[in-house]
Amino acid sequence: MKMLLKSVIAAAAIAVPSIAAASTWEIDPAHSAARFTVRHLMISNVEGAFGKVTGTVNLDDKDVSKSTIEASIDTTTVNTNEPKRDAHLKSPDFFEVEKYPAMTFKSTSVKANGKDKFKVVGDLTLHGVTKPVTLDVLSPAKETKDPWGNLRRGVSATTKLSRKEYGLTWNQALEAGGVAVSDEVAVVLDLSLIKKDAAPAPAK
Questions:
Q1: Which secondary-structure segment (H or E) carries 24?
Q2: For residue 72, what is the domain's CATH number?
Q3: How many domains in the chain?
Q4: Which residues, 6 or more positions from 69, have their beta carbon under 8 angstroms from its beta carbon?
């Protein structure tokens, strides 16, 4: 009986650090950004951004493979600093925001990829199409307390997407050859995460 009790205590002692290492973080939309870049007329880059990114990161510092990420980007907030172009991007030629007001991402695996780097694979749903994508992620920064008492961490990620794979096929052929808008889109995510308070223990 004593041996059994010792085994239970030892198992609990091992489990505690793992539990303590897991934490939940909310994406702060006021201090996060989702930016994209496309080639325009084959000669220059046009940049844009989405103004609202929300979601949750369940982070396990001891075993990152147990971490999960879910995020949503409001497509109605697309902004390239040109009202006519933004209106076109919101139309059925592109994001069709009235029908698809958000794009979502849900991770399926998280793996270390060298020092302070990770590969996050997940399903991106955009314009009614779901495809697997891989994010190259820099390790979340250490916890820091902001002036309002919140614990924060920052994380950045990059990837590249094909517009055609998500049905965003609008384009125009150029007289000199080539097309008006590149198929490849470079994406950069800069996220500020706020730690959620742990749920209170149930009353006994």
A1: strand 22-27
A2: 2.40.128.110
A3: 1
A4: 55, 56, 57, 58, 105, 106, 107, 110, 120, 122
* Total count of residues recorded for the chain: 204
Instruction: Please name the amino acid found at residue 57.
Output: V
- Interacting residues of 5 by C-beta distance below 8 A, sequence separation 6+: none
**Do 180 and 172 meet the contact criterion of CB atoms below 8 Å apart?**
yes
Give the global pTM: 0.81
Domain interval for residue 119: 22-195
H or E, element range at 46: strand 44-50
Is residue 191 assigned to a domain? yes
Q: How does pLDDT run along the chain (204 residues), one tens digit per residue?
A: 444 334 434 444 444 443 456 899 999 999 999 999 988 766 678 999 998 999 999 999 889 899 999 999 999 999 999 999 999 999 999 999 999 999 999 999 999 887 778 999 999 999 999 999 999 998 766 888 988 888 999 999 999 999 999 998 877 776 665 666 888 999 999 999 999 975 444 444
Q: Is residue 124 classed exposed, middle or buried when 0-12, 13-18 and 19+ CB atoms within 10 A define those classes?
A: buried
From the list 131, 178, 185, 194, the residue with the least C-alpha distance to 158 is 185
Q: What share of the chain is helix, strand, coil (3-state, %, to 5)?
A: 20, 50, 35
